[in-house]
Protein backbone atom coordinates (compact mmCIF):
# COMPACT_ATOMS: atom_id res chain seq x y z
CA UNK A 1 0.00 0.00 0.00
CA UNK A 2 2.83 2.40 0.89
CA UNK A 3 4.55 1.65 -2.43
CA UNK A 4 1.36 2.46 -4.35
CA UNK A 5 0.88 5.70 -2.40
CA UNK A 6 4.49 6.68 -3.17
CA UNK A 7 3.95 5.88 -6.84
CA UNK A 8 0.94 8.22 -6.88
CA UNK A 9 3.27 10.99 -5.63
CA UNK A 10 5.81 10.17 -8.36
CA UNK A 11 8.17 8.48 -5.89
CA UNK A 12 9.64 5.02 -5.77
CA UNK A 13 9.43 3.40 -2.35
CA UNK A 14 9.75 -0.31 -1.79
CA UNK A 15 10.99 -2.42 1.11
CA UNK A 16 11.60 -6.12 1.54
CA UNK A 17 13.27 -8.58 3.86
CA UNK A 18 15.46 -11.31 2.39
CA UNK A 19 15.40 -14.36 4.67
CA UNK A 20 18.24 -16.88 4.70
CA UNK A 21 18.28 -20.41 6.08
CA UNK A 22 21.84 -20.09 7.38
CA UNK A 23 22.06 -16.39 8.35
CA UNK A 24 20.05 -13.51 9.73
CA UNK A 25 17.70 -11.72 7.32
CA UNK A 26 18.71 -8.66 5.30
CA UNK A 27 16.37 -5.65 5.15
CA UNK A 28 16.45 -3.75 1.86
CA UNK A 29 14.68 -0.44 1.19
CA UNK A 30 14.60 1.37 -2.16
CA UNK A 31 13.63 5.03 -2.45
CA UNK A 32 13.66 7.83 -4.99
CA UNK A 33 11.79 11.10 -4.47
CA UNK A 34 9.59 12.50 -7.19
CA UNK A 35 11.31 14.36 -9.99
CA UNK A 36 10.63 18.08 -10.02
CA UNK A 37 10.04 19.82 -13.34
CA UNK A 38 13.17 21.41 -14.76
CA UNK A 39 15.53 19.53 -12.42
CA UNK A 40 17.66 16.47 -12.98
CA UNK A 41 16.40 13.17 -11.63
CA UNK A 42 16.91 12.85 -7.86
CA UNK A 43 19.24 10.13 -6.59
CA UNK A 44 18.02 6.60 -6.15
CA UNK A 45 18.75 5.32 -2.62
CA UNK A 46 19.13 1.75 -1.41
CA UNK A 47 19.36 1.15 2.34
CA UNK A 48 20.51 -2.24 3.58
CA UNK A 49 20.61 -3.48 7.17
CA UNK A 50 21.65 -6.81 8.68
CA UNK A 51 23.00 -8.22 11.90
CA UNK A 52 25.30 -10.97 10.71
CA UNK A 53 27.04 -13.40 13.06
CA UNK A 54 30.36 -12.97 11.22
CA UNK A 55 30.26 -9.22 10.47
CA UNK A 56 28.09 -7.87 13.26
CA UNK A 57 25.42 -5.25 12.68
CA UNK A 58 25.88 -3.30 9.44
CA UNK A 59 23.93 -0.57 7.66
CA UNK A 60 24.76 0.47 4.09
CA UNK A 61 23.29 3.47 2.29
CA UNK A 62 23.92 3.59 -1.45
CA UNK A 63 22.87 6.62 -3.48
CA UNK A 64 23.01 6.50 -7.26
CA UNK A 65 22.79 9.75 -9.18
CA UNK A 66 23.17 10.68 -12.83
CA UNK A 67 22.59 6.98 -13.66
CA UNK A 68 26.10 5.85 -12.74
CA UNK A 69 27.56 7.91 -9.87
CA UNK A 70 27.61 6.07 -6.55
CA UNK A 71 27.94 7.49 -3.04
CA UNK A 72 28.24 4.93 -0.24
CA UNK A 73 27.92 5.28 3.51
CA UNK A 74 28.49 2.34 5.82
CA UNK A 75 27.95 2.02 9.54
CA UNK A 76 29.51 -1.01 11.23
CA UNK A 77 29.29 -1.73 14.94
CA UNK A 78 32.58 -3.62 14.95
CA UNK A 79 35.82 -1.63 14.50
CA UNK A 80 37.56 -4.49 12.67
CA UNK A 81 34.79 -4.61 10.06
CA UNK A 82 34.82 -0.82 9.58
CA UNK A 83 38.61 -0.94 9.12
CA UNK A 84 38.30 -3.86 6.68
CA UNK A 85 35.80 -1.86 4.60
CA UNK A 86 38.16 1.14 4.51
CA UNK A 87 41.07 -1.11 3.58
CA UNK A 88 39.21 -2.55 0.58
CA UNK A 89 37.57 0.67 -0.67
CA UNK A 90 39.98 0.94 -3.64
CA UNK A 91 39.10 -2.59 -4.75
CA UNK A 92 35.40 -1.75 -4.48
CA UNK A 93 35.93 1.39 -6.55
CA UNK A 94 37.71 -0.66 -9.25
CA UNK A 95 34.91 -3.25 -9.35
CA UNK A 96 32.27 -0.57 -9.64
CA UNK A 97 34.25 1.09 -12.44
CA UNK A 98 34.42 -2.28 -14.26
CA UNK A 99 30.62 -2.40 -14.01
CA UNK A 100 30.32 1.08 -15.54
CA UNK A 101 29.77 2.93 -12.25
CA UNK A 102 31.81 5.72 -10.67
CA UNK A 103 32.28 5.68 -6.90
CA UNK A 104 32.11 9.34 -5.86
CA UNK A 105 32.54 8.68 -2.15
CA UNK A 106 32.69 5.91 0.42
CA UNK A 107 32.39 6.91 4.06
CA UNK A 108 32.68 4.30 6.80
CA UNK A 109 31.61 4.87 10.40
CA UNK A 110 32.39 2.60 13.33
CA UNK A 111 29.03 3.19 15.01
CA UNK A 112 25.34 2.49 14.74
CA UNK A 113 23.49 4.34 12.03
CA UNK A 114 21.85 7.49 13.40
CA UNK A 115 18.10 7.19 13.96
CA UNK A 116 15.91 8.10 11.03
CA UNK A 117 12.28 9.17 11.21
CA UNK A 118 9.64 6.65 10.19
CA UNK A 119 8.92 8.64 7.03
CA UNK A 120 11.61 9.70 4.59
CA UNK A 121 13.06 13.13 5.21
CA UNK A 122 12.02 15.82 2.74
CA UNK A 123 14.30 16.80 -0.12
CA UNK A 124 17.05 19.09 1.11
CA UNK A 125 16.97 17.76 4.67
CA UNK A 126 20.37 17.13 6.23
CA UNK A 127 21.37 14.29 8.52
CA UNK A 128 24.17 15.10 10.96
CA UNK A 129 26.36 11.98 10.87
CA UNK A 130 28.98 13.42 13.24
CA UNK A 131 26.73 13.12 16.29
- The coarse overall form would be globular
Question: What is the assembly state of the chains in this entry?
Answer: single chain
Q: How much strand? A: 35-45%
How many strands appear in the DSSP assignment? 6
Question: What's the story with the biggest beta sheet?
Answer: 6 strands, mixed
User: Helix/strand/pairing class, anyone?
Assistant: alpha+beta
H and E order: HEEEEEHHE
**Rg:** 16 Å
Mean pLDDT: 86
Low-confidence stretches: 118-131
Estimated helix fraction: 10-25%
Number of helical regions: 3
Description:
It is a single chain. The chain has a six-stranded mixed sheet with strand order 1-2-3-4-5-6. Helices cover 20% and strands 37% of the residues. It has 131 residues and is an alpha+beta fold. Residues 118-131 have low confidence and may be disordered. It is built from three helices and six strands; from the N terminus they run αβββββααβ. The longest helix is centred in the C-terminal third of the chain and has 10 residues, at 89-98. The protein is globular and about 45 Å long. The chain has helices spanning 2-8, 79-87, 89-98; strands at residues 12-18, 26-32, 44-52, 56-65, 69-76, 102-109.
Amino acid sequence: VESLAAQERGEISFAMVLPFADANPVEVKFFRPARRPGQEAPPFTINIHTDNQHLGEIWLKTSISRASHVDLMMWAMRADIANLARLHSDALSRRLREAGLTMESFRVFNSARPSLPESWTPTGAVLDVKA
